[in-house]
Write the structure tokens for this entry.
Amino acid sequence: MKATHTPLVAVIFAGALFSLAHSPLYAQNSTAEEVSMTEEIYLAGGCFWGVQEYFSRVPGVLSSTAGYAQSLVPNPSYEQVCSGRTGAAEAVRVIYDPARIRLDALIRQFFKIIDPYSLNRQGNDIGTQYRTGVYYTDAARDKELRRIFAAERAKGDRPLAVELGRLENFYPAEEYHQDYLKKHPGGYCHISFDSLKDLENDDLKTRLSPMEYHVTQENGTEPPFTGKYWQTDEPGLYVDIVNGEPLFLSTKKFISSCGWPSFTEPVSSEATREKADFSHGMNRVEVRSSKSDSHLGHVFDDGPDGLPRYCINSAALRFVPLNSLEREGYGEYLKYFH
């Protein structure tokens, strides 16, 4: 985001924020099933382009939406928010699976990408819309979040300039702001993504089974005919066990005699990457996931009807059934099954 140099103004008092007229918490519909299976948190960390991209890469985060939180004006536009007169903060709605990542881990990562002592400024962006904050919708989270904040305060000798409170409202930003850095990889971003590796290193050995870790992180191979997906044919999507990125569609899967799940192609050319592999005295082509850089398996030229055979370890995959795609944030892939 191009830096917006609006005059530095005092932080808006919490009382003013909590006196907002009753308005929807967010202008998106969530199914009862989605709400019951997932949790949400709203994070304001300066320009929402970088914050959304960062958390979209966090394992266990199912979806993210850039928007405007705690606004005094219903459904504000970006121009209105930039004026500094709406009281809104650029924020990101994060929907996550608590079975895969805990709230405290998310908030620890959040503190790694912000300057928690800077008031109304992050990076080159100045104004109350760039203030930092954590907003919740479940009152039961208040005590947990306050404990996390207390631990962060103990790390320094200054008070935190990070708001903490109940979400009053959230309005999704204009479509061109959504996943901006995926659409414009060279776009402005004020944060570093280096700390994502910290999360992976701390989390993977406890989150993955020994075989999953061996395959994905140590270039291992599960014994043939032992993986849970080698002969399954249920419709759905196979995603990266490490970060949930879509990798293969069941419509491209076939049962081969090799003893490992086999596919004729990945879900997209960007999903995987290939590299020469001369290990074990062989000349093969290794397949790795593009985003998590996990070892997946190998690709051969002996698939059906002259197509490739992507020979993939079950331990590198997680299967999302067709009836769970929408709930788990993979609704865009439903079109491949009609």
User: Anything to note?
Assistant: The first helix runs from residue 14 to 17. The longest strand covers residues 61-69. The chain has two domains: 14-202, 209-337. Residues 1-35 have pLDDT under 50 and may be disordered.
